[in-house]
Design a protein that fits this description.
The protein is an alpha/beta fold and about 270 residues long. About 35% of the residues lie in helices and about 20% in strands. Helix 8 crosses helix 9. The chain binds S-adenosylmethionine.
C-alpha cells in the first residue's frame, strides 16, 4: 500500500472529485510496474496527464531527466508544490485537452477515464516513443481488439491505424482509492513508423461503424448522410455502393487495410 495517498487526503481534508476521475493508485507494486514498463532513462522527457497526489510522478522523477505533469485540479497542484521538492518536475496547471503539450518522448499516466477517447487521439497526434497508460478495462479492450472480436470498434481501427497497442495487465478496482466501479488495464502504445501508419478518412470509419454488424455495403447505404454527399453524388453512390471492395463482409470483420481499400475505391469514384 502507498500510504502517502491516505496521509495527504487526511492532511488536506480532501474530497476526491469523481467528475475529474480522481481514483488514486494505492498499490506500490502497480505503480512500480507501470513506471518500469516505460523503460525510462535519464535522457527521457516524460509527460504525465493528471499527477493527482504525485505517487506516479515521484517514481518518474527518480528515473527521468525531466517530467512534465499536467493537472486540472488546482488543489492537487497546490499540494504537489508543497509536498515534494522535485528539481526535474514541472507541474503545469490546466486542462490536458486544451493546452498545448510540451515536447516529450514518453508518456506515463493513470488517466482520468472521462477523457480517455479525446486524450488518446491528442496523444497520437504527437511524435513519441512509448506510452504506458491506465484506462478503464472496457476501453482498453476496445483499443486492442482485432477484426471479428466483439470489442472491435471505431476506436480499435483509429488507434491501430497509427500505433501498436498491447494490453499488458488488468488491474482490479481495489488498487485505487476511492475504489472505482470498474476494473482497469494497462496499455502500452508505440506509434508505428510513418511508412506503416495508415491515414483513414474519419467520416468513412464513423459511417461504417454506425452499423458494425451490417454488411459493409448496407452499412454505408444506411449512413451515407455521414459522408457529406451532394444530391448528385448520392445518385452516383447508389449503384456504385454494391461494387465496393469487401462489400460482403460485415463491418466488424473489416481489417484496417480493407477499410483503406473501400476508401480508395470511393475516392477513385469521386465520392469522398
Ligand atoms: N496519477 C494519480 C494516481 O495515479 O494516483 C492520479 C490519477 S487520477 C485517475 C486522474 C487525475 O487527472 C486527477 O488528479 C484529476 O484531477 C486529473 N485530471 C482530470 N481531468 C483532467 C484534465 N482534463 N487535464 C488534466 N488533469 C486532469
Amino acid at each position: 500500500m502507498n500510504s502517502r495517498v491516505f496521509f495527504l487526503i487526511s492532511k488536506y481534508n480532501l474530497r476526491p472529485n469523481s467528475d475529474l476521475g480522481q481514483n488514486f493508485l494505492i498499490v506500490e507494486d502497480v505503480i512500480k510496474r507501470e513506471v518500469e514498463r516505460a523503460e525510462i532513462k535519464e535522457t527521457d522527457t516524460v509527460l504525465e496527464i493528471g499527477p493527482g497526489l504525485g505517487v506516479l510522478t515521484d517514481e518518474l522523477a527518480k528515473r527521468a531527466g525531466k517530467v512534465y505533469a499536467i493537472e486540472k485540479d488546482s488543489r492537487m497542484v497546490e499540494i504537489l508544490k508543497r509536498e515534494y521538492d522535485w528539481s526535474n518536475v514541472e507541474i503545469i496547471e490546466g486542462d490536458a485537452l486544451k493546452i498545448e503539450f510540451p515536447e516529450f518522448n514518453k508518456i506515463v499516466s493513470n488517466l482520468p477515464y472521462q477523457i480517455s477517447s479525446p486524450i488518446t487521439f491528442k496523444i497520437l497526434k504527437h511524435d513519441f516513443e512509448r506510452a504506458v497508460l491506465i484506462y478503464q478495462l472496457e476501453f482498453a479492450q476496445r483499443m486492442v481488439a482485432k477484426p471479428g472480436n466483439k470489442n472491435y470498434s471505431r476506436l480499435s481501427v483509429m488507434v491501430q491505424a497509427k500505433a501498436n497497442v498491447e494490453l499488458v495487465e488488468r488491474i482490479g478496482r481495489g488498487a485505487f482509492y476511492p475504489k472505482p466501479k470498474v476494473d482497469s488495464a494497462v496499455i502500452v502504445m508505440e506509434p508505428k513508423s510513418k511508412d506503416e501508419q495508415i491515414k483513414l478518412n474519419e467520416n468513412l470509419v464513423k459511417a461504417l461503424f454506425q452499423h458494425r454488424r451490417k454488411l459493409a455495403s448496407k452499412a454505408l447505404k444506411d449512413s451515407h448522410h455521414m459522408l457529406g454527399l451532394t444530391k448528385e453524388e448520392f445518385k452516383k453512390f447508389k449503384p456504385i455502393i454494391e461494387r465496393i471492395p469487401h462489400a460482403n463482409k460485415r463491418v466488424f470483420q473489416l481489417s484496417i487495410k480493407d477499410i483503406k481499400d473501400i476508401e480508395e475505391f470511393l475516392r477513385n469514384e469521386g465520392l469522398i
